[in-house]
Design goal:
The structure is a single chain. This protein is mainly alpha-helical. The protein folds into 2 domains: about 80 residues, no CATH class; about 60 residues, no CATH class. Helix content is about 60%, strand content about 10%. Strands 1-2-3 form a 3-stranded antiparallel beta sheet. Helix 2 packs across helix 3 and helix 5 packs antiparallel against helix 6. The longest helix has about 50 residues. The protein is rod-shaped. The model has no long low-confidence stretch (mean pLDDT about 85).
Length: about 170
């Protein structure tokens, strides 16, 4: 039934797989070939091999002999054999794992960037508040001590500060 050309490659022949699928439960057979039961069912569909219906193996376990569907003739769309190349499956698994790792790394980098921006905004807001406080206590009459300007600067500090729930929509526009 199974011709092994090399350890990581298995060739499934239609007639032999048909016999196995009706002699061994799908999950056990799939495990034998190192694939999932869903993957085995898809292979059977592509090879136009009927598979046991739900409850078939329960009936067999209770001593019944349920009807086995016959193997239909292969039409132009079906496959007479399928090659399971485990090395290709392993490469696909590795590629998927690398993609997941890359996506996780990108999420982490976005978080780091967001954290650094919020820290910079917080530090700037703290510096502005310190400046505003210093200017309010100065007896100077320069533009920097103008009360309207200092009020605006305090509001801007609140806008930057990520710990304050306050936004100035005009300042958020690009």
């Amino acid at each position: 039934m199974v011709a092994m050309k090399k350890p990581d490659r298995v060739i499934l022949h239609r007639e032999a797989l048909y016999q196995e699928i009706w002699e061994t439960p799908n999950r056990q057979l799939a495990k034998k070939y190192g694939i999932s039961d869903v993957g085995l069912a898809k292979i059977c569909k592509r090879m136009q091999i009927p598979i046991p219906h739900r409850g078939y193996w329960a009936k067999v376990a209770h001593g019944h002999e349920p009807r086995k569907q016959s193997l239909p003739a292969l039409d132009g769309n079906g496959l007479a054999q399928v090659v399971i190349d485990k090395s290709a499956e392993e490469l696909l698994r590795i590629a998927r794992q690398r993609l997941a790792t890359s996506q996780q790394r990108n999420r982490e980098n976005e978080r780091i960037h967001k954290l650094k921006k919020k820290m910079t905004d917080w530090e700037t807001s703290q510096r502005i508040r310190t400046y505003v406080t210093a200017m309010r206590t100065t007896d100077s009459t320069t533009d920097a001590t103008d009360p309207e300007f200092l009020d605006w600067a305090g509001t801007y500090a609140d806008h930057l500060d990520p710990t304050v729930d306050f936004r100035i929509e005009v300042l958020d526009m690009p």
